[in-house]
Amino acid sequence: MKEYSSSQNLSAEHLLQHLPVSAFVLNSQHQVVIWNKACEQLTGLKAEEMTGSDRHWQGFYTEKRPCLADLLLDDSLGDVKGLYEWAGAPASRTDIYHTENWCPMPDGRRLYLVIDACAIHDENGEVVAVVETQRDRTEQRLMMQALGESEQRISSILGSAMDAIVTVDERHNITLFNAAAARIFRCAADFAIGQPFERFIAPRCNPLFKQFIAFDSATKTPAWVPEGLSARRADGEEFPIEATFSPLEAGGQKLFTIILRDVNDRRLAEQKLERLQQEKGYLQEVINDEHNPGDFISGSKVMRTVMEQVRMVARTDTPVLLLGETGTGKELLARAIHEYSSRNAAILVKVNCAALPAELIESELFGHEKGAFTGAIQQRKGRFELADGGTLFLDEVGELSQPAQAKLLRVLQEQEFERVGGSESIRVDVRIIAATNRNLPEEIAAGRFRADLYYRLNVFPVEVPALRQRSADIPLLARFFLTKYAKKFGKHFDDIEPAGLDQLKCYVWPGNVRELQNVIERAVILSRGSLLEIPPLQPSRDKSPPLPIKPQTLESLEKEHILRTLKETGWVISGPKGAAAILGINPNTLRSRMLKLGISRTD
């Protein structure tokens, strides 16, 4: 059998060594050939002590047992489904095996790892090596368990809640007060019995209560009151109830049974359940999302600079504005900022402002009250409430309507807002990350975007470079997408044909990384050989480099706009006709921007 050696494919080994995902490679003798840097960080075991040994299991288990890579080399070592908490069945022997398992690490940690493995075959179809990767999904797994337990607990409360049962005589004095009533009204039955029931009804509702008692007495039929009635606990707190009034006779005495329910408790429980279900949905999206911060593929200097900025600002709660063309990976950077921040235990909530009709953006961001507009049949929480304690990502923020911009500005300033159709102020603790492919200073000049909101969002701008500015990343990204879609469609490719790779490097990529991803997916579907064939790309460009992009375009346009306004007002900053009022910002803010942009009257 022909043995696998890393020298056979230096580019493959280099890619594995620098892959931001933990990985190792075994040869046909179950010996470690490659133990990459991410695997060293995950396990704490160094490559020099693992390479050439068969002790790879020590990185993931406390006693000797076969890893997934061993099972691909020799399926007689055990059953995959018997050794892992969850294991998927591969479509063919050339497919990638996917498993998930709790693993005791050498340093005592217990991690939930998503483990993938794939065999490498020679030209005769013989297995010469196996690649195994591990991804840490412990935090998401624990959060899913906690959310599931909370959801089950609240559902049980809703299903088994006992209603308060109170019986009163003709004088409305209480004769029966069950345990649930004692709990709801916060007083013992001995205290309540003998007292007039009006003591436990909100004063403003006493006439309504007497009206229902009189109606029941006259008709001798039960009456259900679904809303409009409020009760009062022993400590004076009022709360909404729904109640059923039923007349009866016992021993020649007229009595009335009142079965009531604390609607407030139910509403709170329903709101908590709704939030848990929404959080669970968002968390499931994160777990299923193949694009994680560690998957950001780059070898270019310009992207390393961007990632350094991301890591620095992630440790703060400062608003971040991601600027760049469509398809450059702004959402992936937003996820990275959230994951590197202290808020990563909460969720990242995304709003695509461009995908929502203008009339629904406010409702989506801030929620709405029942009856706020046609179709609002119940109260609904918005994305800000859902993101409380976490991060809100406003993608394509330049598409927000003027009313939504005003509300967003208030939230950024005061951390509070009202739902659509509501009057109650709701306070939240949310970190804002915004992204746009628009030139916001030009939008401000055209009156489509508020200057004061721009200054609030533009505290820490991050310019995301276009793919043509990071051409060194094109081969890395192309091979990354090749691996992804070959797995998806059950195909195997050794590499990309050289002519096709040259074509990818020379193309201008107006759609950036997203367009490159689509090209590779289409090529994987159409190609039949062992090398990926890239179809002709139109329009192609010549070998000359792209025209340089002028730096600080946004600041230049902002400076030009402020200068023009100052000249129109004769350099008057304050007052109703001053430049600050025209720009819609505080005079002190304008002075600060002038100082930062180097604007003086000599200009």
Could you give a quick summary of the protein structure above?
With 603 residues, this protein is an alpha/beta fold. The chain has a 6-stranded antiparallel beta sheet with strand order 2-1-6-5-4-3. The chain has a 5-stranded antiparallel beta sheet with strand order 8-7-11-10-9. A 5-stranded parallel beta sheet has the order 13-14-17-12-18.
Which keywords apply here?
603 residues; alpha/beta; flat
Tell me about the largest β-sheet.
6 strands, antiparallel
Total strands: the figure is 20
Distance between the termini: 78 Å
Low-confidence stretches: 4-8, 157-161, 287-291, 540-552
CA-atom Rg in angstroms: 33 Å
Helix content, binned percent: 25-40%
Strand content: 15-25%
Strand order of the largest sheet: 2-1-6-5-4-3
Overall, the morphology is flat
Number of helices: 23
Please tell me the overall pLDDT: 81
Structural class: alpha/beta
